[in-house]
Design a protein that fits this description.
Layout: H1 2-43, H2 47-60, H3 65-80, H4 84-92, H5 101-117, H6 121-134, H7 138-155, H8 158-168, H9 174-187, H10 191-204, H11 211-225, E1 230-235, H12 242-263, E2 269-274, H13 279-290, E3 295-299, H14 304-317, E4 321-323, E5 338-340, H15 345-358, E6 364-370, H16 373-388, E7 392-399, H17 407-418, E8 425-428, H18 432-444, E9 451-454, H19 471-475, E10 486-489, H20 498-511, H21 517-534, H22 540-548, E11 553-555, E12 558-562, E13 568-570, E14 573-578, E15 581-585
Length: 589
Amino acid sequence: MKTIRFNKITAFAAVSVFLLLSSCQMFASRENILYNQGANAVSAGDFETAEKILRSFETELPHNQRLYELKLLVSSAYLEKRNFGKAQILARQVPIQGTENHILAKKFELLGDVSAMTGNIFKAAGEYVTALEYTETSSGESELREKTGKIFQEKAKPVDLERIIDNYGGKFPADEALFALGKMRVLKGDIGGSRKILEKYKEKFPKGDKAEELSKLIDEAEKSAMNVPVIGCIIPLSGEYEGLGEYVRNGILTAQVIYNEKSGNPIAELIFKDSEGTPQKSVAALDELAKDNRVIAILGPLRSQSLKACAPSADKNRIPVISPTADADYITGISDYIFRNCLLPEQEAIHMADYAVKKLNKRSFAVLYTDDYYGRKLDQGFSREVDKQGGEVKIRISYSGKEGDYAEQIGQLKNYINAGGKFDAIYLPGDFDKVALMIPQLAFNGIKEIQLLGSSGWDSGRISSDGNPEKLLELIDETDLLEGAVFTDSFYPWSNDKEVKEFIEKYKEMFSVMPNVYAAQAFDAFSIIAEQVKKGTRTREEMGKGISGLKKYKGISGLITIGDKGKSGKEPFFIRIKNGKFELINVEI
């Protein structure tokens, strides 16, 4: 009897164990199935399906480690797509309590990546510190430290690094921040400042492994600094034109950092002088800079009047002066040492006339232009070129540029039409805010569904504090009125060109704002000089010869040709408005 009872108990226990193991196996199998389904959806780029699987997973197995791993996998995929909001939400859904350390390390690393990519470097540092606390392997720790250092070097600003150094004292990531800040100062040519950073690193991290590398960088930079030429920069850093000066200064600094990073050593030292936007201050700044024999070229001044005033001093000191913005026609011929790399108004208008006649097959035109220097130059250049190409400007109407209502000018155009006058297109070489008022008034008067042509004034980034070039689209409610319109410009910030993308990324990283055309032209002006330096040019005379022989140099602001005595040739970008957006069109004339 006892034997039978024992066998029953044994059998019951065996069945229970079997059921328990089967149940565990079933759950283990289910969690793997759900994880693999989610991973496959992510791999296929199907985020909608991946999120549905996550919801099912959470319902069935709400506190499963594989669920947390899948959430972080989907979060990482969203991060790659730069969907920072989704990436952050999913990573934060992984709880700390009850979660395995390797998963938590990944969670905080991802949150750090989100902060770094959205510009909050200080917050990213905190997340990486937390990730390091949960990292269980020496290789994982090493990889995280290396990643943190790379982000500090590529994305952090000096103010970010200084804040991290002050906050973390003698602990990670202050060591990586000190190294990044020291390297940054080396690349800017600040040898003294970089040596102070090195001493601070040694004091806080006596066993740190970056001291030797930083010391080597400083020594190499110091040796090469003896042969580093100086570029003087005459820019309005105060006064009426301070905003313009800021964009130009930032464009030059961006170029310097990019060149230094690529070469590993300073390409040139910069000395900035404030012109205050006046000819007198500009001349005084040039005379002062010319006394320093290390200065082999001058960037600026920016205004045409100031550049003209500097010509005698440039001649006397035999120093090449290149302005990225002075576009008046009277600059040509004033000096063998005066150069510029900007698009001249008349050249811009000629290119547009060629395009309108040869590519759009338009033959007759109306022109509404601003009665100022730029408006008259654009009107004259366009009208002459249309006539040269066998077309005809039927009617030309000017406005002062101060009106908010253009009823009088549009009335003249309507009277011309009512009297039997016809034209194929309207050229509106005005500023974006004036054009935004004019185009709806044209439509209201029945002048619509006609080809609109514009100039670089349609680019609002030239005067916008945030560098936004598309405010014209925001100012006209009926965007269909702009459909198919084409305008010329000196810069296209959405280009897929590698150099343009590199410039914009670095500029935004350094200054947290979109660069405009003036910043781009300043970048090119520095690059023209830097390319000569890379060839070994070290004298003013050699620099002047190198600049004056430039033909179709590929800058980020277009193809640049520079001749002697201030001659300048530049090909504009043609931008079309399509479906409410600016798009670059390829034009070969």
